[in-house]
Amino acid sequence: MNFVNGHWVNQLDPKLIHLWGDIGVSYYGLAYVTGFVMGVFMHRIFQRTGRSPLSAEQEEIALYAMVLGVLVGARLGFILLYALPDTLSRPWFIFEVWKGGMSSHGGFIGVVLACWYVSRKCKITLVQFGDMMTPLVPVGFLFGRLANFVNGELWGNISNAPWAVIFPRSAPGMLPEMIAARHPSQLYEAGTEGLILLLYMQWRFWKTDAQKYPGRLSGEFLLVYSVSRIVCEQFREPDASLIFGLSRGVFYTFFLIAGGIYFIVQSHRRPPITFPYTATPVAVVPEKKKTAKKR
What is the pLDDT of residue 21? Predict the structure, then answer.
């Protein structure tokens, strides 16, 4: 391990396997794959315990929709919310996904659209599907933020804390001895938006009756995530120009807070649903009637 001035230097390789140039198997890509695999695994448990309104066939539809919604939404969100000038000058940048550039807020929009599609396709309400998804999403946040740390991107503000880290990418071309240490804000976000939010949603999902009230889990998810994001943004260096004196991460999060409050208020106005969901009936082949033998 390389330490400079008492601080660890993050010289981790973002690629697990190098194929050609900047193209290869990245930890960031593996984070997405791991998040989806873990989501499917957890959803299968939901199905076996009657906590999911989806059948096995509907799960496949939901998986494809969520993968598309997350990837396309996160990419387009980054382009529109953070990198629009660069994209206008270099339109092909939108396809250079190996260079990074994914937005969690854009991913939220993509997920909402995917949830809407699945709810229409599977004939369930949007909030019912959303409440079932919220305990799964923090797994993706956890692995995604850990991958940000491995990549040495989205670093924090300059800090003299003993655990501060030197990120060479924060000052390209400079020697590590000349680079200021910074808060490992990616790990702060992995712990709050990922682990803490995951534990909280699992507790609400399994140990309380919150799922009986459509929209309550979705609203709480948005509020807890928003608080975590705003707190962590205080330690993170803004990665784009400010809006009304706020980092873009904080500014866009206010819309999530409004959505969370709306869902919680509406959950108090809706009647509770029958719970747990009944298991998908299995087709039973009727037994053949025995006919009396002629003597």
Answer: 74
Omega before 276 within 30 of 0, i.e. cis = yes
Neighbour tally for 218: CB within 10 Å: 27
Domain positions in the chain are 3-269
The encoded tokens of residue 27 equal 């930890």
Task: Indicate whether 187 pLDDT > 80.
Answer: yes
Token pair for residue 39? 């989501």
Query: CA–CA distance from 231 to each of 50, 119, 134, 166, 235 (Å)?
Result: 36, 33, 21, 22, 8
Of 21 and 48, the structure prediction assigns the larger pLDDT to 48
* CA atoms of 266 and 9, how far apart (whole Å): 48
Which tens digits make up the pLDDT trace of 160-183? 999 999 999 999 999 999 999 999
Q: What angle is formed at CA 106 by the lines to CA 143 and CA 225, rounded to 5 degrees? A: 55
Distance between CA 259 and CA 218 in Å, rounded?
A: 9
How far CA 259 is from CA of 65, 177, 211, 256, in Å, comes to 22, 45, 18, 5
The DSSP bridge partners found for residue 165 are: 8, 182
**Bridge partner residues of 166 (DSSP):** 9
Phi, psi (rounded to 5 degrees) for 20: -160, 120
Average confidence (pLDDT) over 64-72? 90
The candidate with the shortest Cα–Cα distance to 192, out of 225, 219, 143, is 225
